[in-house]
Amino acid sequence: MKAHLITYGCQMNEYDTHLVESQLVSFGADLVGSVDEADFVLVNTCAVRGKPVDKVRSLLGELRKQKQQRPLVVGMMGCLAQLEEGQRIARKFEVDVLLGPGSLLDIGKALESNERFWSLQFKDELHGHIPPPPTGKLQAHLTIMRGCDHHCTYCIVPTTRGPQVSRHPDDILRELDSLLAAGVQEVTLLGQNVNAYGVDQGAKLAGYPSFADLLRLVGRSGVRRVKFTTSHPMNFTEDVAAAMAETPAVCEFVHLPVQSGSNRVLRRMAREYTREKYLSHIAEIKKHLPHVVLATDIIVGFPGETEEDFQETLSLYDEVGYDSAYMFIYSPRPGTPSYKHFQDLPRELKTERLQRLIVKQKEWSARKNAGKVGTIQELLLRGDAHDAGFLEGHTRGNHPTVVPKALGATGPGIYRARIEHATPHMLYGRLIGQDGQDLPELPRLNPEAAALSSPLQMA
Ligand code: 5AD
Ligand code: SF4
Hints:
Elements: E1 2-7, H1 11-26, E2 30-31, E3 40-45, H2 50-69, E4 73-78, H3 84-92, E5 97-99, H4 107-112, E6 117-119, H5 125-128, E7 139-143, E8 145-146, H6 157-161, E9 165-166, H7 169-181, E10 186-190, H8 201-205, H9 211-219, E11 225-229, H10 238-246, E12 253-255, H11 263-268, H12 275-288, E13 293-300, H13 307-320, E14 324-329, H14 337-341, H15 347-370, E15 376-384, E16 390-394, E17 400-404, E18 413-422, E19 427-432, H16 447-452, H17 455-458
Parallel strand pairs: 1-2, 1-3, 3-4, 4-5, 5-6, 7-10, 10-11, 12-13, 13-14, 17-19
Antiparallel strand pairs: 8-9, 15-16, 15-18, 16-17, 18-19
Helix pairs in contact: 9-10, 10-12, 13-15
Bound molecules: 5'-deoxyadenosine and iron/sulfur cluster.
């Protein structure tokens, strides 16, 4: 069988795609790079906003057309598959295999079945399952918990992914060992709300460590870099900031979604914290990690958001000084409390607010990135950049960074660089050796083309 997987949504979904791909390979499938080469196409879906749902709908429409022309099995997995809405779409587009986010390990049974195979139960075996490490990658994801126990009124995820379950720490550490043995140098711990690791009922009874202690454990494993995402501010404890500060492998990067700067909106979102409480967490983080890089998620145009509410979001942005932000227009999701109870704001109003927020974000990203010029950053270089003669990678704070190829650093790995130039989206540096001296640059393959497309001129 030739299988091709397509992934929408978050890093949790990327992890799940890898998990299912490795299952398929173990059952003898070949993974192919395009729909045209495949006889089994599996779409890993996201339901968090209307847009990813629309994308899945049009992709499945395309696939149905192809099914009429050649033998093709079409599958759908992930968050949308778990919802009524997704199952309606699956019926309409004649989807053969449907796996909810908790039933991914049923992929084997799905392959054996000669008829339509749908499975939507959450299976506990998933938590103990350790997928093989990705091949030839320096970075990997590691899911430490699934589901979410919060009930933000806009959010479909508690419905799609169910209540929170923390994975057993032994399973996490075993998976980490296998990643390290495969040469992985940067691990991102994943969960809908990693700060709440260990606080679900089962985990508490079993005496799992807190998230802060898990960070300390993972940090001692020999991995070069540890990151984590994402967190609900309610579950952020000062001990997490302390663990980050005392564990050198843990990167000084925190993604703490705020969603809104207005207490009135936060209340209607049922976020369970106030602006003041959120800012006190940020102050704790900055106290322990003075050079922390901060990112957030913001929803604009939540039902009932007034101009004053929106101004509060803008002023919170200034008060925190985020390095980056994911910004979303509120999207009413059927099945959520805000969909049921609140009136959506006009589209133009929401779009106009988003544009104003993007201006704010660009100003801050420009200012924060400019502040990196002249500093030394540790880079994980993934490989060749788009421009010949350059390598691309990212810092401990997740800044995308480009450097010219240099002697002794032509391939993937962790290096140090002096940052020489910055735009709101990119840092440009020069690799340095242990002595702090520049590593000699390699001659460009095509000096003319390279000069034309030099990132320093693009900026
Ligand atoms: N509309 C817009 N954005 C949403 N998010 C979650 N639900 C919605 C929605 N209904 C955003 C939140 C969350 C991120 C993953 O997606 O900001 O943190
Ligand atoms: Fe989308 Fe949320 Fe599901 Fe991730 S967890 S795929 S963001 S709905």
